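Handout, section B. The chain below has 213 residues.
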Amino acid sequence: MNLTRLGYIMTADAFGEFNMNSFNIQHIRSKAWLLSELSKLKKAGKIDIEDKSAAILGGGAAIWADDLIELFPTIGKIRSFDIDPAHEGIANRLNASWWKVDRKFAACTADINSLDFSGPTTFSIKDVDYKDYEEQTIDFGVIINTSSEHMASDWASNIPSNKLIIVQSTDYIKSPIKKSQDLADMFGITNVKYKGGINMLGDFIRYMVIGYR
C-alpha cells in the first residue's frame, strides 16, 4: 500500500471510523493476495488484461485501486461501484490523481445487481470535483468482487465467457462456501486459472477464484 496515501487517510478526520475499518489487516491482506496471484498469472501468460477495463464491485473506499494501476499500468479504465454513496466521495478523493490521467479511475454509487455486464455497461458517474453527473458506457473485460459474501449473486448472472472474473468469499459462520471449488461452482467459473484460500488470523478462511466461464 502507498504509505503517503495511508498517512493522508489516517489523519483525515472527516473519514472517521470508516477510515480505520478500511485498513484492518484482513482487508489489506486479501487485496495483497489478489494482486500477487494476478501478477503471477499475467507473467505466466495465463490471463490477458492488457487494455482491459476493470469493474470493482462493492469497492468501498477502493484503497487498493492505486496498487492495481501501478502493478498493471496498461490496464484500461477502473470503475469502483458501491451501493453506499458515502464511499464514492472517499474513493474519489483517495484516487483523485488517477482521474486526472485520462479518467483512469472513478468511483460510482450503484446497485451492482442492476448493472448489465453481458456487453458494454452503462452507468452514471460524477467527476471528482463533484460537478454534474454524466453517463458513461464501458465494456469491462475484468470483473472483480472481493465482497461477494455480503451481497446477492445477481451481478454474475450475465457475465460472458470472455470476461475475467475475480471473486472472493469466506467460510464464515453460515456461508455455503467451504472450499475454493464451491466458489467457482457458485459463479459458474469453469476455466479456472487460480483457486485457493488463506487463513485470516484463525477467524475464517477467505477463498479466491480467478478465471473465466
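Note. The domain at 3-212 is CATH 3.40.50.150 (Rossmann fold). Compare this with the example in section A.
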